[in-house]
Amino acid sequence: VQLVESGGGLVQPGGSLRLSCVASGGTFNQLAFNWVRQAPGKGLEWVSSISLSGGVTDYTGSVRGRFIISRDNAKKIVYLDMNSLKPEDTAMYFCETSEGVRGQGTQVTVSS
């Protein structure tokens, strides 16, 4: 499976963005997905996960209540809706499968 992320950009604190991860090839419906991020000068941080059906989701504490992960199995897309963004959310965001395949990332910058 190949993954392509999009939707990043520059947003002011308190703003919102929707990230998309489009999958091609592979068996999308048989994969769980994660969103991970890497801030400048820091290691990779797990952000959120979603199960095969989308019925089970999980979030790291710093984004719980602000971010929502979802998936459209018919379109083979995984989304990350990010609300009430903070400067500390600034990072490169990556979509990855439960088998460790990762996309090229999309940059999110939260700044006034």
Describe this entry's structure for a reader.
- With 112 residues, the protein is an all-beta fold.
- The chain is built from no helices and ten strands.
- The strands form two sheets. A six-stranded mixed beta sheet has the order 2-10-9-4-5-6, with no helix packed on it. It has a four-stranded antiparallel beta sheet with strand order 1-3-8-7, with no helix packed on it.
- The termini are far apart.
Please bin the fraction of helical residues: under 10%
Radius of gyration, whole Å: 13 Å
| Physical arrangement of strands within the biggest beta sheet | 2-10-9-4-5-6
Structural class by secondary-structure content = mainly beta
| Low-confidence blocks of residues | none
Largest sheet: 6 strands, mixed
What percentage of the residues does DSSP assign to strands (E)? over 45%
Q: What oligomeric assembly is this protein in? A: single chain
**Rounded mean pLDDT score:** 96
Tell me the overall shape. Answer: globular
Number of strands: 10
Count of helical regions: 0
Report the span from N to C terminus: 37 Å
Helix-strand pattern, N to C?
EEEEEEEEEE
Concise account of the structure shown:
With 112 residues, the protein is mostly beta strands. It has strands spanning 2-6, 9-11, 17-24, 33-38, 44-50, 57-59, 67-72, 77-82, 91-97, 106-110.
